[in-house]
Amino acid sequence: MATAASSSSLPSLPPPSPKSPPDLYGKRRDTARLHMLDREITFLEVELKNVEALQPASACCKEVADFVVANSDPLLPSRSKKNHRSCRFWKWLCGLPCLNLSWICCCCFCCEGFPVHLKLPSCHCCRPCSCCSCSCNCLPSINCSLPKWLCCCLCPTSSSNCCKGSNCCSFSKSSCCKWSSCCSCSRSKCCKWRRRSCFSCSCPESKCCQGSCGFGNCCILPSSCSFQCPSCPSCCSCKCSCTCSCPSCPKVHPCCCCTKSFWRSAFCCFCC
Amino acid sequence: MSLSQPKMSVAELKERHLAATDTLNNLKQRLNHTRRSLLDTDLAGYARSQGKSPVTFGPTDLVCCRTLQGHTGKVYSLDWTSERNRIVSASQDGRLIVWNALTRQKIHAIKLPCAWVMTTAFSPTGQSVACGGLDSVCSIFNLNSATDKDGNLPVSRMLSGHKGYISSCQYVPDEDTHLITGSGDQTCVLWDITTGLKTSVFGGEFQSGHTADVLSISINGSNSRIFASGSCDATARLWDTRVASRAVRTFHGHEGDVNSVKFFPDGNRFGTGSDDGTCRLFDIRTGHQLQVYCQKHSDNDIPPVTSIAFSISGRLLFAGYTNGDCYVWDTLLAKVVLNLGSLQDSHEGRISCLGLAADGSALCTGSWDTNLKIWAFGGHRRMV
């Protein structure tokens, strides 16, 4: 092996280094993508030729309408004599014949001549419900209007303050989260997509709730991701300690609710 | 063009790529234009022109007949058997429960190896159940197996291979040995359960498939070689299991994730439900979008659709929403005829899943309130 000359007249050359291999993998990938595009173009050209021969939407709509009309449906209300089977099925499911035909707070109607007692609507109002008037088609002597399923609520304030299905609230409707007990949360704390309960969202707004917890903030699950949370109060304030990477993530939200599961000793978090 | 020997330079490749993309976009535009010209009406317009009367429900026509209580976490998925009125449900509590829908009895409570379950399905014979979730594995349980020493039903087969979570699964009708899964890795897979191996992969990096997570699948009841998938890429795609390399057709229209797909009972159409708050009906042979089902809200905040199901005649479309509503749509006239969420004994949380009994006589809804509810026709029939 020749040694480098130590003469001062020769410039010192950089040490030899091998040439880096050509980026064939990247090129192969791009070539494959181009191949895929060319294939797509071929398919679309064929589709363009075929689409002009397709029937218009009205022909498809006729097929749908004809199919629907031709087939009976046990879930559809019918005013004919047919469908005795589903009537009997309903009777079996919904209990014994009515023994107490008191028209006060009792809604009853007939199925093929047999009076059946419906369950009373349970009242959630802070005061007893007024009687829901009932209808009994087989007993014309009882003169009632049609039954109402929603509870007649006698909250002291106007009905607009009585949240559906909940206690009468002394707050305005905007503060009473739908379906929950009356809560004093402000709108900004009651995250938009969860109207049911107030909770303190420890995630910043951009990471919380509808639309914002999108692909950019999702986590790859499960092995690298720890969902261990500290014990949570009833309002969720825990955070998930996931590292985030896009886009291979399920539709999860980093702000999760902890629930105590009977099958596990620790608190479990599941985000969905 | 050979993939094995790249002959073009990088610059030439880029140029060809740009040209091909332009051609593709141009073709798509022309295709869309031609398709739009074929949309001479939608289903509601046609039904009105034929003088169809709307479906009307009395206050007691559709009632909650049963509430199935037992899960301690959100219910994410449910499926009916083909017979005998059993339901399997999957929950955040890490359990599958098999219920007798009539008696409310819990027949099995299966503790899962991974609690993060997202989907479950009954086999056609009712002898086994499948489930999958964030562990990326589809687990099969044989309901007739003996339990282990802890009283748990063992996993009889694990279908591994997906690179992302399993969002949906369904057995191929009349075949206990094959099922299809949809996954967060953007693919759908047809599995042979006997061997535990993949038969076909639909989509993927170099195939014409979804470009985002697959969220839902539905197999055509009239032709089990055909199935539809819905995805976060806002499209639904139709697949033929004999041709895995490319979707038969891609259905555009939604403006958000397609969370749910379900075939219409005639097998020639399918419905979708999306984050954009709408449901849509598509024709599989022509690709036409036949109807959009959208309910305007006063606050302009349209809740996403989580799940859909058609009644057995197709006249009713049941749609569950994130705000707990469960609209019953008149499919022909595109009108909401009932909201199960406003009825007595309705759920107190998001409707996460829906399913119709095989004979069409009952609907089961699952919710984040941890319950399942059975809804059936409770109206009276006047003697004519």
From TrEMBL, chain A:
Residues 12-21 have a biased composition (Pro residues). Residues 1-11 have a biased composition (Low complexity). Residues 1-25 are annotated as: Disordered. InterPro entries: G-protein_gamma-like_dom, GG3-like. Residues 30-101 form the G protein gamma domain. This is Guanine nucleotide-binding protein subunit gamma 3 isoform X1. It comes from Arachis duranensis (Wild peanut). The lineage of its organism: Eukaryota, Viridiplantae, Streptophyta, Embryophyta, Tracheophyta. The gene is LOC107457909.
TrEMBL record, chain B:
It comes from the Eukaryota. Keywords: Repeat, Transducer, WD repeat. PROSITE patterns: WD_REPEATS_1, WD_REPEATS_2, WD_REPEATS_REGION. GO terms for cellular component: plasma membrane. One of its GO terms (biological process) is signal transduction. Pfam families: WD40_Gbeta. This is Uncharacterized protein.
